[in-house]
Amino acid sequence: MIENEYLMLVIGMGLVTFLPRWIPLFFLTKQNLPDVIVEWLDLIPAAILSALLLPALITTGDPRHLAIFQPELLVAIPTFIFALKTKSLGGTVVVGMSLFWLAGRMI
Amino acid sequence: MNKTSSDTEKTSAMTQGLLAVWPICLGYIPIGLAFGVLAQKAGLGPLEIGLMSVFVFAGSSQFIAVSMVSAGAATASIIVTTFIVNLRHLLMSSSLSIFLKKVRREKLSLFAYGVTDESFAVNLSRFRHGDWNINAALVVNHAANLVWIASTVMGGYSGQFIPEGAFGIDYALIAMFICLLIYQLRARKYVIIAIIAGVLSVIFSLIIPGNSYIVLASVLAATIGVVFKKQIK
């Protein structure tokens, strides 16, 4: 049996997760944004992907600290080159996984 | 023969969507299983795990929520933390909105539910490429969601299916982000912004606990990009 408090928790979490995803799509799509905002939003994807990726490659632990020579970064170099050459998302995932697995066996 | 053109469109949106989404699904399976295992250890049953994945569908905040549940945190503080962790989707939905001006609001709402770091990046690069439509994007979001729900529940049932580190599967999402980032680097300015954002993100991640460093670094880097747009062209 699901307790009411747990139900409140997931509904509350769901609401605060859905609203930031929904508000811009619901409202921004129906109006023309100022140029400066469009330029800013145009830069967001590159910025956000890099901001997600780089700490995952060169930091580790909790609290986080720098770890430059970890397999995450070493494997990222050939994976990056493969992605750059092929532009294939599925291929990159498979190559990255295989190399990371190999790196784990060797170290 | 009798297929109407809208039927054909729907079939091809399904195929297009599935072809685009499978790398995301591959990445979600180990994380979903791991989440299920953790949630089970925190005392949640499969039904409770499934409910959270259906209502929330946001990996990192679900992990945080479960660790807060097992630490006995108050419901309100878990919800506030979830809000902060997922605020970055505000930026992602704003970026996507530029490409979805002609879409009906009902569809937009359905689409909004599935905006994650991964689906955002896949859909955005396809929309920008020009060969994408809302139906295929909906397939991406909801197929990813189904895989996420299923793998979290399975993790909750059975503990560890996949031994730790098997097949390098822990690297799936990182590899995906590498390729998705490359899709974004279409001109010099994007490369410069990505470097600034990456460096800022590393610095912030080392000095600020939690994951607000992602939003801080992206917002700051994009703002620098707009302010210095003449210099970085």
TrEMBL record, chain A:
Keyword match Transmembrane: yes
UniProt entry keywords in alphabetical sequence: Membrane, Transmembrane, Transmembrane helix
Domain of life where this protein originates: Bacteria
InterPro entries cross-referenced by the UniProt entry: Brnchd-chn_aa_trnsp_AzlD
TM helices/strands, residue ranges: 6-28, 40-60, 80-103
Protein name (record): Branched-chain amino acid transport protein domain-containing protein
Provenance organism: Desulfonema magnum
TrEMBL record, chain B:
One BP term from GO: L-valine transmembrane transport
Bilayer topology term: Multi-pass membrane protein
Any single GO CC term annotated in Swiss-Prot or TrEMBL for this entry: plasma membrane
Transmembrane keyword on record: yes
InterPro entries given in the database record: Brnchd-chn_aa_trnsp_permease
UniProtKB keywords: Cell membrane, Membrane, Transmembrane, Transmembrane helix, Transport
Sequence similarity: Belongs to the AzlC family.
Record protein name field: Branched-chain amino acid transport permease protein domain-containing protein
Organism: Desulfonema magnum
